[in-house]
Amino acid sequence: MPPDTFATPMQRQLTPKEAPTNTQKRDDDRASVSGSEGESSGEDVRADPQSRKRKRSMKISCELCKARKVKCDKAEPACGWCASHGRLCVYKERKRPGVRASYEIDLEEKVNRMEAMLNLLGSKVEDHIVNDHVGRAQPAHLQSPTYSQGRYRPTPSLTDVDPRSTPVPTSATWRPELSRHDSISIRSLVGDDGLSHAQQPPFHRQLEQDTDLPPYDLLYSLVDLYFKHVATWSPILDRKHTFDVLFGRAVLEEPDRVLLFAIVAVTLRFSKDPRLTIESRKHYHDISKQKVQLYGLENPNIQALQALVILAIDILGTSNGPQGWNLLALIARNVVQLGLNVEKSVYLAATPYPSISCLQAFAVSQPTSWTENEARRRLLWMVYVLDRYTTVSTSFNFTLDDIEVDRPLPCSYDLFSQNEPVETKWFRWPERTETTMNNPDNLGSFAYHCEVLRILSRIHKFLNRPVDISSHSEVQQWRSTYFELDNDLNSFLAQLPGDYGRISQLCHSDPASKIANWIMLHAAFVTSVIRLHSAAGYPIVCSSYFMPNQQAMQRCLAAVDSLKVIAQDVVDSNGLDLLGPPFAFSLWVSARVLLVHAAATESAVDLKHIGFFISTLEIMGQYWEVASRYAKILDRLVNEGQRAQEPHSGGHQHQNMRSFTAMRSLAYELNQLVSQRPGSVLSPTSTRLTSLNELEYLDVFDSFNYPRLRPASQMNSAASKVLAPGMQNISRFDEIVRTPNGSTNLHAPGGQNEWLEYRGDAG
Question: Which GO CC terms are listed, alphabetically (predicted)?
Fold first, then answer.
């Protein structure tokens, strides 16, 4: 049997120079996985000038170009890219032709699988002959075309269809080509229903599922793109191990195949392959998404969770809505049920019999290596990270609560890939008092990212707790917690390693280095600062005890400027494709702070600053659609706010145009309206018609509607609503601060209201 019998059509269309052999593919994989950009092992082909001409004909692309998957001009002594970037250009000789050492073993396994498939088909034919009519059991080549096509409808092969007439790749288009004799003998004698999926041999199932995947060379490129654009900030998989599993085995197991589907779904957005049309991208994405979801629902295991997490990144990168929230809720519950949220020292052995015990039904096997156990920790922490980013923009509770997590923080990626066991800082809930080893050298940027999100979790819970702003004791307690969280943020910033302060320099020196997660960490810290201080700087409701604060405003604006500087460095170095949806969310939060500031102070928005955030989100929208959605909402509201401030030709403002202050007030009114609870189940209900603009006001301003008030029945006394410039003020009559002329002026922070300087205990 020729070795390329089961090659894809695209592989057979390539010339020998274009289609790399299996040995060359594995060499390229090793070069891209283990070789650094500035180092290479092996003898330089330029060592002997006399044999340069002879060796040049056998020379392939340089090691760096192979690792980057780009065309190399093979220039001497260095190719164009290496020369322009000052890199060491290394060429390796092409290996001698011939089959690899394990080729005979692989071929023998392939023959055995084919024999098993033919034996199964033979038994099916015998049963068919015995149980059916004699006339229907005659050979396929004697059957009439009407009978053969009318009952069985064999799937057309590429030999029957011109590929140029079917540009959209379907499941039949990418089917590995079999000979016409094989197609007739198998599909005409055994109907489509005669061979169930569960009875098919593994290799036959692999062929059937390969029809839903891109060609092999494109598939290899997509996995490589995953580690360049997604794994930089979501490091749950080891690159070398993943390539060995997906491309180094003769048979791909079902869990690994599902992981491959998830990688395809999330990385199609980064591929520029001309074969991927709009229709084919949608085809591959829809099939991959369906495969992962169905397998994840029916198979609660580690590989299914990894695939679901990668798919969740794809969905949350498209829209931050209920579809992603539901998937993440399923993942979080599976993490807890499988026991991945806690560190274990004893595992239960698997039994061949089904168990009704929850402890045994969801038991996972003991990890075979430290790297496998660390991969489970990283899986947990990535679920933790995604849960924080999706929940912090809402008033919901976290699906994976901090109190359920009892595992060490992930180690650095280098130690993870080297399979080197180390001790890291233990993640403890504040009530836990155990001391653990804390070696900063073992921690990477991903661990610090998880730590700052832990503080963000506490901020989210703190802000969602209702407070009676008319009660002096409750406001004092609120301040005490506020100062505690502020100190935690400052302490976290002080303990970060020196690389954190050199992000801007690293962006310009080497954008492809391991700094993507440092940038994501910076964005997460900015988001945490804004979430905490915006409640004090831009409160939506006020009282004589709870007033806006100028210092908190400045902290928010300084955080926005800090993120703008880092984002500008990333844009200048063309590195936005290395960052994910969480970075787009931080840009979205920072841009909204500028609108909230304009609404609270009744001033014009800084068009230069917010324009930068909008344009940056538009660039990220090329890869992550949710960023494009953010940019469109911001752009529409900025244009509306600007037009509302421009006088009409008659001296009046434009109709149906609201200022930023009016937008925020309307958003708060809508929030209060939908939050009302009926006094009785017999109370009448109603529906309020809302426009698209009003819903966008909620998207922008609802996350800044703090502090949360207690229900009116739980307040110390009756409250009244008093409109003030810039916000809706709900205060007791005797606690409203007024100016000498009797008008309210609660939006403008004054010196006597600088309560952030208070450092006493809660009273």
Answer: nucleus
Position 736 in a domain: yes
- Nearest Cα neighbor of 311 from 414, 230, 423 is 230
Closest by Cα among 722, 756, 760 to 546: 756
Q: Do residues 577 and 270 lie in contact, with contact meaning Cβ atoms separated by under 8 Å?
A: yes
From 37, 105, 91, select the one nearest 510 (Cα to Cα). 37
**Cα(155)–Cα(207) distance, integer angstroms:** 14
State which of 211, 233, 258 marks the end of a domain: 211
3-state secondary structure 220-250: HHHHHHHHHHCCCCCCCCCHHHHHHHHHCCC
Q: Judge whether residue 561 has pLDDT over 50.
A: yes
Q: Which residues contact 756 (CB under 8 A, 6 or more apart)?
A: 479, 536, 549, 551, 552
Same domain, 696 and 582: yes
- 428: closest CA among 344, 343, 334? 343
- What's the pLDDT band for 101 if we cut at 50, 70, 90? low
Task: Identify the H or E element spanning 702.
Answer: none
Residue 203 pLDDT level (bands cut at 50, 70, 90): very low
Per DSSP, the chain holds a count of helices (H) and strands (E) of 28, 2
Q: Is the torsion defined by CA of 539, 540, 544, 550 positive or negative?
A: positive
Cβ within 8 Å of residue 244, ≥6 positions away: none
Pair 127, 175 in one domain: yes
Task: Give backbone dihedrals phi and psi of 738, rounded to 5 degrees, phi first.
Answer: -125, 155
Identity of the highest mean pLDDT range in 6-15, 85-94, 478-487: 478-487
* 65 and 127 share one domain: no
Nearest to 275 by CA among 13, 67, 42, 459: 13
Length of the chain, please?
Answer: 763
Gap between the Cα atoms of 227 and 242, Å rounded: 10
* 3-state SS string for 383-425: HHHHHHHHHCCCCCCCCCCHHHCECECCECHHHHHCCCCCCCC
Domain encompassing residue 198: 118-211
CA 93/CA 91 separation, integer angstroms: 7
Tens of pLDDT, residue by residue over 308-322, are: 999 999 999 998 888
Q: With a cut of 90, say whether residue 683 has pLDDT above it.
A: no
CA dist., res. 658 & res. 693, Å (int): 10
- 447 located within any domain: no
Give how many domains the chain has, as a whole number: 3
CA distance 85 to 718: 70
Q: Which helix (H) or strand (E) holds 462?
A: helix 445-463
Residue-level pLDDT at 441: 79
Q: Tell me: do 557 and 619 sit in the same domain.
A: yes
Residue 432 forms part of a structural domain: no
8 Å CB contact between 620 and 318: no
Q: What span, in angstroms and rounded, lies between the C-alpha atoms of 726 and 748?
A: 9
Distance separating alpha carbons of residues 717 and 239, to the nearest angstrom? 62
Predicted confidence (pLDDT) at residue 172 exceeds the cutoff of 90: no
Question: Of 85, 110, 128, which residue is a domain's last?
Answer: 85
In 3D space, the residue among 420, 346, 410, 417 whose CA is nearest the CA of residue 379 turns out to be 410
Does any domain span residue 522? yes
Tokens 């703190």 -> residue: 462
List of E strands, 234-375: none
pLDDT one-digit tens code per residue, 212-247: 889 988 999 999 999 999 999 999 999 999 999 998
How far apart CA 365 and CA 348 sit, in angstroms, is 7
